[in-house]
């Protein structure tokens, strides 16, 4: 348990995992970009150590097939290939001891009985008997970490005797291994050394059983450098012991001290290999050493994969999503700074692409005859070409690989197709980028790969094709998050998670209109690619009309806003405004009529007309009231109603949805163009001032000043961040001292001041005073 805790602490220290006091923020594997999926490669036995921002964890199914398990391979060869792997798997790992008899249907047991191999049968029975003892039993009185069990001691002695007795040398080693393992669980450290030295120290052929035994020798070794040397040899040669031995390699020790125990170049290469896997930053120096010392080292393809996955994280995570890499070496100032610096991100990407070129140079020099799976190696080189932006060479290499015997239904072939599509889009000219017919099928086939689809969209956006980018983003349905390139600060919600949220902030009104035109013109195409591309967004037309109308509201172009709101059907108002609507027999409504009711203020204006409330009707009524204010004699009344509506269209009002599709304290930057209006209510202030200017009664004038002052207080709160939060209250003296309008109200209408500032029901009396 102590060693497990050390392992966990090591991982927490080595990985960059953000921790927040409250709230959720995307991080780790949720944001990491990875196109070279480890499962696509023939490297599954190393899967416990795939590059990841998560902690390493043991894989209970380390071998995807029985044939991949080296222990099964041993028994298959032992049985001269006459027993299939499934029968071996069943016999060794599943059949209980009491079923070991000549009546068993298991082919492996039948083989041993037919060949009269009693030694093998007895060994397997003994191994089954040992299973119950392969654990440390804790002392309930906590006097010792483990207790010596007499029965286990007897089994150790019996295993030693059998190792001397049996004629088969392979079974001799296996009995010795069982004795070593039992000695470990019995706390007999000295016996582990003795048994290992007597049975394995002079081994000429170091097979799987040798490295199983060396594992226990390693974990009980007190010399950390020697222990690390042992660990590296076990890690490379015993797949099922890799996770268990990983943390015994001490990366704080100078590697030269560990190397001093190595007797061959192969052993040195193994040390560099494990040292490379222990690094979460650049490991090329170690990987080159592995290749130089042992060109056929089994870890080399995996080490290259890990380095490619690192580079994908370091380059693509920030390039496509603008997040920092999921695993990084940023200092604390960079990690926790509230400042968002696109330049800093781009500078790091440039440096990481330069490192990718070095990795590519190394990978290109390696002789493929020495590599166990040259196809995997070549595919990783292709990905490095893409990372380094050598698109022409990348596409040529892909073309060459496509002409080989590579299975076109395999995952590795599909990965090549993903890279091909990304390369082709990357090659498109700025300002005229499109999705070529050549990659339509690739995109449709991989439509569920959200990172790939988003990356294609992002590349198109960078090239100036924002329409196709939006169409692709609309298919993601919340499976990817990304940041704005125009962010100025970092916050808990400085990221986007769907296409509508993104275009609402980042697309101009003309760009949204162009998007609508494209959908209306092309969404009825019958080809598979178009059917998919428009599948979701073609039903979003009313919502997009709503967006255009809202964008015009932000520009205070009410006439054009109304044109687009008139295009919206009632279903849109019903479906997307449920959070601030109530239902009754007459239909759907905003919470309150924005012309007659102010938020947190008792009703004080008699409603002369009622109408169904939505963006369309409110906009139409606002246009009507502005015209009446300008053309009738009742100017102060209508200007006041208009001002109320603009007031309610701010974050402080009951009709904020006229300008926004959601409200958060940390909205994604850049904010919409009317952010200052939304926070401060300048238009409301303007029309309250016009109402004041045209008012004839002093009490109504005083009410207008009260409302002008309320708008001014918003400006003070937003423009004076040094005021303590507890003082950001319109009734607080500190605000009043800065509020010129409240001062004017007090100076010019002293008899009304207390009533309007502190009274709860005064507004109604003062409004009625209007003549």
From TrEMBL:
<keyword id="KW-0732">Signal</keyword>
<protein>
    <recommendedName>
        <fullName>Tetratricopeptide repeat protein</fullName>
    </recommendedName>
</protein>
<feature type="signal peptide">
    <location>
        <begin position="1"/>
        <end position="21"/>
    </location>
</feature>
């Amino acid at each position: 348990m102590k060693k497990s805790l050390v392992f966990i602490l090591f991982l927490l220290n080595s990985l960059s995992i953000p921790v927040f006091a409250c709230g959720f923020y995307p991080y780790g594997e949720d944001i990491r970009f990875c196109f070279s999926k480890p499962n696509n490669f023939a490297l599954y036995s190393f899967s416990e150590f795939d590059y990841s921002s998560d902690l390493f964890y043991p894989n209970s199914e380390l071998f995807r097939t029985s044939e991949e398990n080296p222990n099964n391979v041993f028994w298959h060869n032992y049985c001269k290939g006459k027993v299939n792997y499934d029968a071996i798997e069943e016999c060794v790992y599943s059949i209980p001891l009491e079923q070991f008899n000549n009546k068993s249907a298991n082919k492996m047991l039948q083989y041993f009985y037919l060949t009269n191999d009693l030694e093998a049968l007895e060994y397997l029975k003994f191994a089954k008997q040992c299973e119950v003892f392969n654990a440390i039993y804790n002392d309930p009185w906590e006097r010792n970490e483990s207790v010596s069990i007499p029965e286990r001691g007897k089994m150790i002695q019996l295993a030693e005797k059998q190792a001397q007795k049996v004629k088969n040398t392979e079974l001799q080693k296996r009995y010795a291994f069982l004795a070593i393992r039992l000695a470990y669980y019995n706390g007999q450290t000295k016996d582990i050394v003795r048994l290992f030295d007597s049975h394995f120290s002079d081994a000429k052929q170091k097979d799987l059983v040798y490295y199983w035994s060396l594992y226990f020798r390693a974990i009980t070794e007190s010399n950390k450098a020697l222990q690390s040397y042992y660990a590296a040899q076990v890690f490379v040669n015993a797949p099922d012991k890799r996770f268990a031995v990983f943390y015994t390699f001490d990366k704080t020790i100078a590697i030269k001290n560990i190397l001093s125990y190595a007797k061959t170049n192969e052993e040195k290469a193994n040390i560099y290999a494990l040292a490379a896997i222990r690094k979460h930053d650049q490991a090329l120096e170690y990987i080159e050493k592995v290749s130089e010392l042992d060109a056929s080292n089994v870890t080399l393809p995996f080490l290259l994969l890990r380095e490619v996955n690192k580079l994908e994280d370091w380059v693509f995570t920030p390039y496509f999503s603008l997040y920092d890499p999921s695993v990084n070496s940023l200092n604390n100032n960079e990690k926790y700074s509230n400042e968002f610096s696109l330049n800093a991100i781009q500078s790091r990407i440039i440096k990481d692409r330069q490192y990718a070129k070095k990795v590519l140079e190394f990978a290109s020099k390696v002789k493929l005859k020495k590599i166990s799976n040259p196809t995997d190696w070549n595919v990783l080189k292709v990905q490095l070409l893409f990372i380094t932006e050598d698109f022409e060479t990348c596409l040529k290499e892909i073309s060459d690989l496509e002409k080989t015997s590579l299975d076109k239904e395999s995952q590795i072939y599909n990965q090549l197709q993903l890279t091909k599509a990304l390369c082709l889009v990357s090659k498109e000219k700025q300002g005229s980028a499109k999705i070529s017919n050549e990659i339509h099928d690739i995109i449709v086939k991989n439509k569920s790969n959200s990172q790939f689809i988003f990356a294609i969209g992002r590349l198109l956006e960078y090239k100036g094709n924002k329409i196709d980018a939006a169409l692709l983003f609309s298919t993601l349905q919340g499976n990817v998050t990304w940041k704005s390139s125009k962010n100025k600060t970092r916050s808990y919600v400085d990221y986007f998670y769907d296409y509508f949220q993104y275009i609402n902030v980042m697309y101009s009104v003309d760009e949204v209109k162009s998007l609508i035109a494209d959908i209306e013109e092309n969404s009825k195409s019958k080809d598979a690619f178009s059917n998919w591309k428009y599948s979701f967004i073609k039903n979003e037309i009313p919502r997009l009309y709503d967006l255009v109308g809202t964008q015009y509201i932000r520009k205070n172009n009410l006439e054009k806003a109304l044109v687009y709101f008139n295009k919206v059907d009632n279903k849109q108002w019903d479906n997307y405004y449920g959070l601030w609507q109530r239902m009754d027999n007459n239909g759907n409504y905003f919470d309150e009529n924005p012309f007659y009711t102010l938020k947190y203020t008792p009703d004080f204006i008699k409603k002369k007309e009622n109408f169904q409330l939505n963006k369309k009707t409110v906009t139409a009524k606002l246009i009507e009231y502005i015209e009446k204010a300008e053309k009738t004699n009742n100017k102060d009344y209508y200007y006041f109603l208009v001002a109320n509506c603009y007031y309610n269209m701010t974050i402080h009002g009951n009709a904020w949805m006229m300008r926004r599709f959601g409200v958060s304290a940390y909205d994604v930057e850049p904010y919409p163009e009317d952010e200052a209006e939304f926070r401060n209510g300048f238009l409301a202030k303007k029309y309250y001032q016009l109402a004041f200017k045209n008012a004839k009664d002093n009490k109504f004038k005083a009410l207008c000043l009260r409302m002008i002052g309320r708008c001014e207080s918003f400006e003070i709160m937003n423009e004076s961040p040094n005021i303590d939060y507890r003082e950001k209250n319109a009734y607080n003296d500190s605000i009043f001292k800065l509020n010129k309008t409240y001062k004017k109200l007090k100076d010019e209408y002293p008899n009304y001041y207390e009533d309007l500032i502190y009274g709860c029901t005064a507004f109604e009396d003062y409004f009625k005073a209007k003549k």
